[in-house]
Design brief:
Elements (H helix, E strand, L loop, with lengths): L4 H8 L2 H27 L14 H6 L11 H15 L2 H14 L7 H16 L1 H6 L8 H10 L1
Length: 152
């Protein structure tokens, strides 16, 4: 009885294409993960153009538990307006608060808290009677409620 040799070879070894396919199946995911990791570390996430390349070791060794450098927009606005209240007057600060809320509607939910903080600061700087004279209907008269809460 005579057997064909081609039939046995394809069943037993299944040829070089299967070995190449298995090798690619093992190596390709590793290559894709590493290239993706390296691509992410090369993106300038800090916004600082001078240090745009971050190595993988720097990304891993950076201290994540430290205080955040970037501050929320409402905190920046509040501090700016409190400084403006001290340097100029509460009326100017309230006008700029209204302009900021009109320009960035996402700040509207923080408007009441910022206006109350301005009212409290105005009482400390100008006294309750003079601080109340600067009141205007910004953020549902929250400035006036801040003045009144500090005075009482």
């Amino acid at each position: 009885m005579k057997h064909s040799t081609t039939n046995q070879r394809t069943r037993r070894g299944r040829g070089p294409a299967r070995r190449i396919g298995r090798t690619l199946a093992l190596v390709l995911p590793v290559v894709l993960v590493l290239s993706g990791t390296l691509a992410v570390t090369r993106v300038n996430w800090s916004g600082n153009p001078s240090n745009s390349v971050l190595t993988a070791s720097e990304a891993i060794s950076s201290d994540v538990s430290g205080p955040a450098v970037a501050r929320a927009p409402q905190d920046v606005l509040r501090d700016k307006l409190l400084l403006e209240l001290q340097e100029k007057n509460p009326g100017v600060a309230l006008t700029h608060l209204q302009e900021a809320v009109n320009g960035r509607p996402s700040l509207a939910k923080h408007c009441v808290a910022i206006a109350r903080a301005l009212g409290r600061a105005a009482v400390r700087a100008y006294g309750p009677v003079r601080a109340q004279s600067f009141a205007r209907p910004v953020c549902d008269t929250s400035f006036a409620s801040g003045v009144a809460a500090t005075h009482l």
